[in-house]
Amino acid sequence: MKTRLNSAVLVLSVILASGFFAGVIHAQQNGAGHASDFASVEYFGAPHQQQMKSRLSGAEAQPLAGGLLVIKQLKLETFNTNGSPATVVEAPECVYDTLKGEASSPGHLQLRTFDGIFRVEGDGFLWRQGDHLLTISNQVRTVIENTAEKKTVL
Amino acid sequence: MKIIHLIALLVVAGGWNLRAQTNPTAAPAHAPTRIDSDRVDFDLNTHQAVYQGNVRVDDPQMKLTCTHLVVYLPESGGRPNRIVAETNVVIDFADEKSQKMHATSDKSVYVYAIQNGATNETVTLTGNAKVENAQGWLTGEPIVWDRASNHLTATNQKMIFRQNLDGAKTGTNLPPGTIQNIDRLTLPPSQP
Fold this sequence. Notes:
The complex is a heterodimer.
Chain A: H1 2-22, H2 24-30, E1 35-43, E2 52-64, E3 68-79, E4 85-97, E5 102-113, E6 118-128, E7 133-144
Chain B: H1 2-14, E1 33-37, E2 39-43, E3 48-59, E4 62-72, E5 82-94, E6 100-115, E7 118-126, E8 130-133, E9 136-139, E10 143-146, E11 151-161, E12 178-187
Antiparallel strand pairs in B: 1-3, 2-3, 3-4, 4-5, 5-6, 6-7, 6-8, 7-10, 8-9, 9-11, 10-11, 11-12
């Protein structure tokens, strides 16, 4: 019986996930179901409109009322105008406000530049997509690797 | 007055070594630099990180505290090319003899760049800039620490010494010597 119940839950989840993945915007609006492999992409303005500016993704997204999404395993990637990667931000969970374009959480967050030389982590954050500003509000810890050709940063 | 100048310069050349090198008791030079603070605002458009509140920088060669710190990262990646510390800037480091050095200023600007194959790396202290050690202290506007060549340069500086020729503490036989109104003085690194 337990096995049957687990199987039913699994099938239901797959159905909901498939439906949500097929239309992320629609699912956000009706507040039903959840999605896997959620992603929201932003592009640069002209003349770099073909280049991706940021990509916000998550392993799972659960819609809430008011245009909110609970995103598990958040990953925010930013890019330069030449298409090269710039930074990667990761957090176990956050709430993404689709109307304001803001992601926030009282939980942990990690940021690193693409080469890993500059890394920041802390607790409690707010990401404002409009101005590309990330605020980490507590216990901010930064590590800057000192590469071989240069002894120290300061 | 000339004798006082000469005595003071001898003390500078022989007793107050301002060449800063890795403290042998500290972390190895390739160890990472760490910055702790209460808050950071990271502008991912301009690649600037603005730290506020109890900012503490722990570098293999120095420790720095301040209220406000901005780190500028190059778009192409790599290490920060400019770091600006403001308000109640305090820097502690050690020279090659493990002698403690203590610097304070309103503002400190670190610049790192490679131009024509040469590394330019300076820390410029402005606003009540002061560097102090056991022998005395140096003020200037600005005080520039060239990290690549390990030169300390002070403009419009004033130097006050706590020691006399016998190495006795201030307040014993001789008053501390003072040099004033020198437009610019560069202190080369001491010989090993």
